[in-house]
From TrEMBL, chain A:
This is Uncharacterized protein (DUF934 family). InterPro entries: UCP030820. It comes from the Bacteria.
UniProtKB/TrEMBL annotation, chain B:
It comes from Methylomonas denitrificans. Gene3D superfamilies: 3.90.480.20, Sulfite Reductase Hemoprotein, domain 1. This is Sulfite reductase. Pfam families: NIR_SIR, NIR_SIR_ferr. GO terms for molecular function: 4 iron, 4 sulfur cluster binding; heme binding; metal ion binding; sulfite reductase (ferredoxin) activity; sulfite reductase activity.
Amino acid sequence: MQIIKDRQLLENTWTFIADDIPLPENGDITVTLARWLADKEQLLKRSGQAGVRLNPSDQIEPLAGDLSNIGVIELNFPIFGDGRLFSQARLLRSRDGYQGEIRAVGDYLPDQVFYLSRVGVNAFEFADPNHIQEALAAMNNFSVRYQASTN
Amino acid sequence: MYQYNKQDQTLIEERVSEFRGQTQRFLNGELGPDQFRALRLMNGLYVQTHAPMLRVAVPYGLLSSKQLRKLASVARDYDKGYCHFTTRQNVQYNWPELGRVPDLLGELATVQMHAIQTSGNCLRNTSSDHLAGICKDEIEDPRPYCEIIRQWTTLHPEFAFLPRKFKIAVSGATHDRAAVQFHDIGVYLVENEAGEIGFRILAGGGLGRTPIIGQTVRPFLEKQHLLSYLEAILRVYNLFGRRDNKYKARIKILVKETGLEKFTSMVEKEWLRIKDDMLLSNERIDEIKAQFAPPAYDATAKNDSSFDAHLAGNSAFVKWVKYNTVEHKVSGYRGAYVSLKAPDSPPGDITAEQLEAVADLADQYSFGEIRSTHRQNLVLADVKQVDLFTVWQQLDAFKLATPNIGTVTDMICCPGLDFCSLANAGSIGVAKEINEALDDLDYIHDIGDIKINMSGCMNGCAHQSVGHIGILGVDKHGEEWYQITLGGSSENEAAIGERLGPSVSKEQITATITTILDVYVKQRLEDEAFLETVKRVGLEPFKERVYANH
């Protein structure tokens, strides 16, 4: 499946592994925050990269010390109107200094990518492939920015 | 007033084309109703009983004559020839067609107007004191700070999907005319002991179902930190405000459930981290202030004697001056209210012809500017006393001079069941009936300062809980009933009205109001105002009479 990263289309290499599925030996995977905190060492010993999938209610502070080991942070939208993920992205970038990929996944709209880009999200995965082109276009919806933000 | 630069103009034009695309996708079936709902709400578009309702932003209640004329032409071309001013100083159109809304917004954009963030769970239009810049009790003009906040809130990327709507008000005067204590964030300009001017920041106020008075989170904030402090509060709210229940999602519930002390420490911790990266420079403040510089007042205005002569010769003019004009800090000038509370017209409504008449008066007599008030009237803020007689005559010719500002017939009223899909009961019809029952101006003037606020449902758009007399429409087995509260106030001595007793039926509501007024007249001491009497005697004497036959 194709995703958008840094405004380019590329093939996704990451797989989310749910808590009740054993960790595969290879490949780039993301896990929930709880699993990351519990199985950090095991995750880092694998041959593939490891990342974390955050949900809106997750407290991201315990992650701060691990950020240099995290290949991707997914922000998982259960519904598009849950704005907590926007603040999480902003804090990961501006407070915690995370420089890796932050990817939006789940139920959100192409209309939100302008805002998401501005709070530090640099990759976008959509279940509906039609949304990819819409999202690329929506990134340019506005040329004016009033606030200082992540970009 | 603030004039858009190229960037400001570009942004609202880009917003129009974004919305045009979204509307098209919805009409083509590419965007679902729930998704489109969230997007259209952020552009002020509701779906109402008869048609969509579009709410247009009037930032801090300031309008130019050119904008007023555009509102008039839009009312003619896209609506039924009128519009409605709201308690947040905004404008509503009740009859636009969905497919034409993008064009309507395009028209508004040509005069620096828009509907951005006038609804939805986002940062709303900032409201302010309608006498800003002209009142004598002002510490500093709040409008430059409102404009700074307007820019900061517009398309703020992090706070576009909040738990619930979020409203900010700023007042610069010692007398609060902007209901600051009932906003999610309230900002007062204050002077500290060192004589510096800064802000007192309140949070957690709000009306609606659970009215709560805002609490001070910071007694004094230096001006340079305004935006960082707002950002810290919003970030805490965005992360921790409840999202499980929309009736508990406003910041007032977060502050209440977290406790003021803990909430404040969460905000301060975040603020200390970000404050040095978000400084508001003096140059920036001065640049915006320059756009609100006082107009070129005529120093000889006070020399006029015709005003006194007119007062001596015309008792109707005397009444209008007494009730519908206010003192001005410049001698020889007064502020003149345009009453949108004529007895036979829904409160806050204004026709295209009236809008144009007011625009003409503003151009001729008040530097081309108009303000909207949170009590749903307009103000010509800078009228020379020599011109007041003419202004009065012309307003009167357009039924805009009912001398009732601040009186019992200057009711705040929502559109109610006639237009709104949320309402449980009618409000416009009740307002009309109360007006008909109170047709004696001398009586109205005798009973003086009484604020009636009436909402058609719990959402409380007309701020009934802070009305001196609050009327709330409720649904009782499919019938319209009305619950009454007494003793509310949104001014300095903020108070939430107390419930009088069981609700009354539609047939009884007008008689109930006149009974309440009657009890006041019998109970008052000398020139004691309604609110003071209620405070002194309590609800009992009112209850006794209202429920005498129950």
